[in-house]
Write a structure and sequence with these properties.
The complex is a heterodimer of chains A (108) and B (113). Chain A is 0% helix and 59% strand. With 108 residues, chain A is mainly beta. In chain B, 0% of the residues lie in helices and 55% in strands. The chains are: A mainly beta (108), B mainly beta (113).
Chain lengths: 108, 113
């Protein structure tokens, strides 16, 4: 069983839709990263959180440490949000455990 | 700050050749990470440094791979001799601390023919 599971693996939505990507993990963690990888390959760190909720623009990330679950939400989605979104919990040794990613396509 | 800088952005070489990838971390960051990304294995941590000292190289695939950090502003990842299965995108990242956000470079796409 993978230590990190993301769902869905692929998501196609229309512009303007509310997007939710889920991440479940099985190990104890100190924090969790959400990263975005653009079609060109570049990786951008969106959030690092260890509790509660963080918001940046149209992006919201939440985490429930007890339930070992995190979600990434995108409000008013736009085609430029099309990318792969990666959940990466950080274990007790501060090593990132990489999820397989969710490929998001937003159609105009 | 310009962010993490990697060079070259693309490298095509023939099997058996030596390949050197370069990284300049964000100034002031004490940690530097080398990752490899392939379709089959996703993102893998190869090695990371703290204050120029290698801390964990357990992810380095084999002796053909070596990494150095001679000073706080420069690191290299060397593959000698290169093999086709080394073809991947290699990312460098840096952070203030282990528990802090890692900032990624644009990556080097390596193709070994």
């Amino acid at each position: 069983k993978n230590e990190v599971e993301q769902s869905p693996q692929n998501l196609t939505a229309q512009e303007g839709e509310f997007i939710t990507i889920n991440c479940s993990y099985s190990v104890g963690i100190s924090a969790l990263h959400w990263l975005q990888q653009h079609p060109g390959g570049g990786i951008v760190s969106l959030f690092m959180l260890s509790s509660g909720k963080k918001k940046h623009g149209r992006l919201i990330a939440t985490i429930n440490i007890q339930e070992k679950h995190s979600s990434l939400h995108i409000t008013a989605s736009h085609p430029r949000d099309s990318a792969v979104y990666i959940c990466a919990p950080m274990d007790s040794n501060y090593q990132l455990i990489w999820g397989a990613g969710t490929k998001l396509i937003i159609k105009p | 700050d310009a962010g993490v800088i990697q060079s070259p952005r693309h490298e095509v070489t023939e099997m058996g050749q030596e390949v050197t990838l370069r990284c300049k971390p964000i100034s002031g960051h004490d940690y530097l990470f080398w990752y490899r990304q392939t379709m089959m294995r996703g993102l893998e941590l190869l090695i990371y440094f703290n204050n120029n000292v290698p801390i964990d190289d357990s992810g380095m695939p084999e002796d053909r791979f070596s990494a150095k950090m001679p000073n706080a502003s420069f690191s290299t990842l060397k593959i000698q001799p290169s093999e086709p299965r080394d073809s991947a995108v290699y990312f460098c990242a840096s952070s203030f601390a282990l528990a802090q956000t890692q900032y990624f470079g644009p990556g080097t796409r390596l193709t070994v023919l």
